[in-house]
Amino acid sequence: MIYFDNAATTKPDKDCLGRAEKYLTDQFYNPSALYAEGYNLHLDLRSARESILSHIADKNAYELIITSCGSEADNQAVFCAGRRGNIVTTSGEHAAVYSAVSEAKLRGGDVRFAKLNADGSVNEESLLSLVDKDTSLVSVIHVNNETGAVNDINSLAAKVKKINSRTVFHSDGVQAYGKLPYRLSQNVDLYSLSAHKIGALKGTGALIKRKTLNIKPYIYGGGQENGLRSGTENVFGIKMLEYAADKVYGNLQENYKKISAVKGRLCELLDKNIFTVLSPQSGSPYILTVAAEGVRGETALHAVNDKGLIIGTGSACSSNAAKRHSRVITACGINDKLADSVLRISFCCNNTAEEAELAAEILNKTVGELKEALK
Fold first, then answer.
1. What is the radius of gyration, based on Cα positions, of the chain?
2. Does residue 224 come out as left (phi exceeding 0), alpha (psi in the -120 to 50 range) or beta?
3. What are the backbone dihedrals phi and psi of residue 266, each rounded to the nearest 5 degrees, phi first?
4. Rounded to whole angstroms, how far apart are CA atoms 67 and 73?
5. What does pTM read for this prediction?
6. Which of 67, 134, 289, 369 lies 20 to 30 Å from 170, alpha-carbon distance?
7. For the chain, what percent of residues have pLDDT higher than 70?
8. Please, are residues 262 and 253 in contact by the beta-carbon 8 Å criterion?
């Protein structure tokens, strides 16, 4: 079985699981407890937060709020930072941001959506034209989870701040953390990430926050995470995230080159008479989006799955949506026929060129046969 749906979730790393296991079985204490075992876990979590943060941000300027997932981190950013004036975001956001701002709009908020370029990146002119003196929050996804297009969030944040220095700038970095070489600039106030996209576990995420930024809690209760996210800490999940982040960042450049080659090999071998590549060449090497016009994406997904290849049709978080086409793909200007046939192929550092070659063979043969049968 070839697993090429890593943008949806990755396989937990066995080495990291082995290292973190003691926090599930032996060191199971509540880190908020006053006895020594609990306090020692509290210290372990402090160092874990600093480590997770250090890979992309200055720990003296930023702090980490542990959440249950990337979606919760996105929701905290939207509902706790976008509390006045208007909110500006893009038509290409992950459902966790898009649905949250849509709810804010239903509650009477002024929400503005910037247009996308054809590759899924935000149209900068459109975005900046929507920002004004009353804009409380701007949220721009770092890597488009459906096309792989990369937004230069540091540059965009700086330009937003020039228009309104009080505007909070947030980015969903779920598909970027652990995959792309970058560091957050001082203009990025909030940044979301998720553990299970880099070989850690589902059920853990984080919101990186600039220390001088004041926001309200999203979940109230025991006052954990410096009062910004209550709930007993998932020590096992947090340590898994720490270890997985250490591992991927220790091999970041090597992984980037390797996956670029895997993606390139698959692109090279895909039949150009069957598939249209929608992902930009300058996008993340971890995501390749294609379309086979005339064959429904869901039909192709099941057909290649029967042949031993697991891929996606887009964001797994939007798979239950009522609309036939992805709103992100439609916002890119893709026509309905092509939008109906989208397939998302996504990689992790363990994928190989040999898998790409076999995947291309399966896709070409299986989808080609479907296309012929539907003529």
1. 21
2. beta
3. -65, -45
4. 6
5. 0.95
6. 289
7. 97
8. no
